[in-house]
From TrEMBL:
Keywords recorded for this protein, A-Z: Acyltransferase, Transferase
InterPro entries according to UniProt: Acyl_CoA_acyltransferase, Diverse_Substrate_AcTransf, GNAT_dom
The UniProt record lists the keyword Acyltransferase: yes
Annotated N-acetyltransferase domain residues: 4-157
Annotated source species: Harpegnathos saltator (Jerdon's jumping ant)
Pfam families xrefs: Acetyltransf_1
Transmembrane segments: none
GO molecular function: N-acetyltransferase activity
Protein's UniProt name: Diamine acetyltransferase 2
UniProt keyword Acyltransferase, yes or no: yes
Superkingdom classification of source: Eukaryota
Protein family membership: Belongs to the acetyltransferase family.
Xref: CDD domains: NAT_SF
Length: 162
């Protein structure tokens, strides 16, 4: 097996990252949810002020996983980071690649003065144990927080009254 390397994503990785995002969406049983294409990833991640950062895991030259993250702000602690996704292709799971990707995000957070790293996990996803073993706290259980979202149609209705 080729050496596994973690590096910052490059613009030319966006097509593969988009394919991996679809694989993750399929795994999460929501294949129709992905609406971005690789051009949006290129624009949002590599043009002007990036809206996200991404690290990729490679085996040789092949991208086999990714971690996508971005800055958020907490009125309680200040600068923070949100981990949107970690995904490793099925053939490379169980080889500590997810751990390496998570550590790369944690390092980026600490190097950029972030005070916390937030993320969400589906309630059935066994990845919860992966995060808990590394010290993550389930806020729904501990602090009773629930994550809510306005989808586009409801967001448009809400904005129309502004």
């Amino acid at each position: 097996m080729a050496e596994i390397t973690i590096r910052k994503a490059r613009r030319e990785d966006c097509k593969t990252i988009r394919d991996l995002i679809q694989e993750l969406s399929n795994y999460e049983k929501m294949p129709e949810q992905v609406q971005v294409d690789y051009k949006i990833l290129e624009k949002d991640g590599f043009d002007g002020e990036p809206l996200f950062f991404c690290n990729v895991a490679t085996s040789g030259e092949k991208v086999i996983g990714y971690a996508l993250f971005y800055y958020i702000y907490s009125t309680w602690v200040g600068k923070a980071m949100c981990l949107e996704d970690i995904y490793v292709t099925s053939e490379f799971r169980g080889k500590h690649i997810g751990d390496k990707l998570l550590k790369s995000v944690a390092k980026a957070a600490i190097d950029n003065d972030c005070r916390q790293l937030d993320f969400i996990v589906l309630n059935w996803n066994p990845a919860q144990e992966f995060y808990k073993k590394r010290g993550a706290c389930d806020l729904t259980v501990k602090e009773k927080w629930h994550h809510y979202r306005f989808y586009l149609n409801d967001l448009m209705k809400l904005a129309s009254d502004a």
